[in-house]
Each structure stands twice: as structure tokens, then as C-alpha cells.
Amino acid sequence: MKQKARRKRFGQDLQRLWLLLQSRLRGSPEGELYDSCITLKNLALVKQQKSLSADAIYEMLMLHAIRLRPAYAGMLSLYRSGRDAEAFVFFAEAVGTKAGKNFASILSKLDEINPAEMITQMQVFQNMMAERRVTQAMKRVQRNSLMITLWSSAAIFAMLINFTVVVVFLQTMETLQTLF
Questions:
Q1: How far is CA 174 from CA 51, 132, 164, 166, in A?
Q2: Using one digit for the tens of pLDDT, what is the confidence trace for 112-135?
Q3: Quick check: 100 and 92 in contact, CB under 8 A?
Q4: DSSP of 75-101, one letter per residue?
Q5: Are the C-beta atoms of 138 and 131 separated by less than 8 Å?
Q6: Can you say whether the dihedral through the CA atoms of 62, 67, 73, 78 is positive or negative?
Q7: Any idea what DSSP says for residue 110?
Q8: Are the CB atoms for 162 and 168 separated by under 8 Å?
């Protein structure tokens, strides 16, 4: 009996460690927001016939979050104390990104929308996050391309200057030899 409990606890510890490593690799809270979006979408798909309370959904999001757990905990605390608007403002500020503000806006509507609408909202949010990642990748590629072009141009310019100096120096040497 104790061995089963130990194995279960060990498995949970490994899962937490794996989630922690994944969150460290993500680097920004936007990766975890994306995971929260997927969690919400899955919850909506599974519970299409009966809707869950927003409180239960926030609790599930908090359980699955690592980096955003304090933000979810603060939001849930404010939500349970009846300060709904303040809870979502707190979450948006805790995340600190535009995506966090958009996600907080979606979270604020969970009591009012049905699961089908939530799935649509999550798909729109996922598309927005994907577009942002593509845009950031394109900007990074353009910046790298510009840097490579600048360094190549500088190398070519240096070669031309070197060629000009060598030609002028050789002509000067020939002129000096003829004079002396």
C-alpha cells in the first residue's frame, strides 16, 4: 500500500519537474497562456453538454499553471471575494503582456458564454498567438539578414579600400624610385 502511494507521489513529482522544465524553456508567460488556452478549449470540448462554473475553470487553470500560478491564485482570490473586474485587471497586470490582457478579457466572460462560444474564442486566441509568433520570427529573420548584409558590405568596402591603398602605394613607390 505504501509503495503504491510512493510511486504515485514519485510520478506526480516527476510530472511537476517536467512541467517546470517546460516552463523554463518557454521563457515567457505567453507560452503558458497558450497552454491555458488549450486547457480551456479541451475543457469546453469535454463538457459541452454541461457548463462548468468559472470558479472551477479558474481552479483547473491554476493547477496546470507553473509560472502563472501566482497570477491565477490572485485572480481567483479576488474573484471569490466578489471583485470580478479587479480580478481580471490583476491577472492582466500580473502577466504584463497584450496577450495576457486579451486572455483576461476572455476569462472575464466565462460565466456568460456557452462552451461552443468558448471554443471559438480559444481558437481565435490561438490564431492570434500563432500570428504573433510568426511575426516575431519574421522580424528576427529580417534583422539577421540585415546584419549579414551590413557585415558583407563592410568586408567588400574594406577590400576595395585595401585595393586602392595598394595601387596608390605601388604607384607612389614607382614614382619615388624614378625620382631617386
A1: 93, 63, 15, 12
A2: 887 778 888 888 888 888 888 888
A3: yes
A4: HHHHHHTT-HHHHHHHHHHHH-SHHHH
A5: no
A6: negative
A7: T
A8: no
The torsion angle over the Cα atoms of residues 84, 90, 92 and 94, rounded to 10 degrees, is: -150
Q: What is the pLDDT of residue 25?
A: 47
Nearest to 113 by CA among 61, 39, 54: 54
Nearest 5°: the CA angle 23, 32, 120 is 155
**51-58: average pLDDT:** 79
Q: What is the largest CA-CA distance in the chain?
A: 105
Q: To the nearest whole percent, how much of the chain has pLDDT over 90?
A: 13
For residues 34 and 126, is the Cβ–Cβ distance under 8 A?
A: yes
CB 76 within 8 A of CB 53: no
**79 burial via Cβ count (<10 Å: 0-12, 13-18, 19+):** buried
